[in-house]
Fold this sequence. Notes:
This protein has nine helices and ten strands. Helix 5 (about 60-70) crosses helix 6. The protein has helices at about 1-10, 15-25, 35-40, 40-50, 60-70, 75-90, 110-125, 130-140, 150-155; strands spanning about 30-35, 55-60, 100, 125-130, 145, 165-170, 180, 190, 200-210, 215-220. The chain is an alpha/beta fold. It is elongated, with a radius of gyration of 22 Å. The chain has two domains: about 1-155, Rossmann fold; about 165-220, CATH 2.40.50.
Amino acid sequence: MLSVFASLTNRSGSEQPGNAAAAWGQSSRTILLDTSVIIDGRVSDIAKTGFLPGTLLIPRFVLNELQYIADSADSLRRARGRRGMEVLAELQKISAVSVRISDIDVEGVREVDDKLVILARQMKCPILTNDYNLNRVAELQGVTILNINELANAVKSVVLPGETMGIQIIQEGKELNQGVGYMDDGTMVVIENGNKFIGQTKAVTVTKVLQTAAGRMIFARPDE
Length: 224
């Protein structure tokens, strides 16, 4: 993965700490990226929409962690790391965003998450992540978090009890006689007495909408 690592560095333009200060003082917003959100991959799709103005800043220690994962002996971790490298390369091709790799570091701190939080506090900029633990730690220290999972939940379709929609019921639910289907945005719909309609697209009426930490869940019953 060394050649990919070098390619990313050369195209992004590595910064020395002294030169970075001028860039961070610009009026455009700087957003720190953590490893998890790069591997996740959705950041590139969001960037294409233009909803991430400013500079996406990847510290060298984040890139090093990504390379370490990409070189892992574990095949799953290796695939995740290489996917992250591909996402970075894709981000650099998007004209709507500026991607910058910086040599900035935090002395005396070993953990990547701790370094990101300290940098975000010093630079007064947000961290883009989907890591729950980093989210909580950063918020406790007054750092702004842009959580992609929260964004995904926020833009899901809004439905209210009493509304009718068509759902393909694809499997049984956890409770007796339940069926389960999904809306186009991935929201789970649990259908009362829906197990007998598995494999069919059925008109259902929403009975309850439940918002949980894991996302939104809709309960419904088949229309008679």
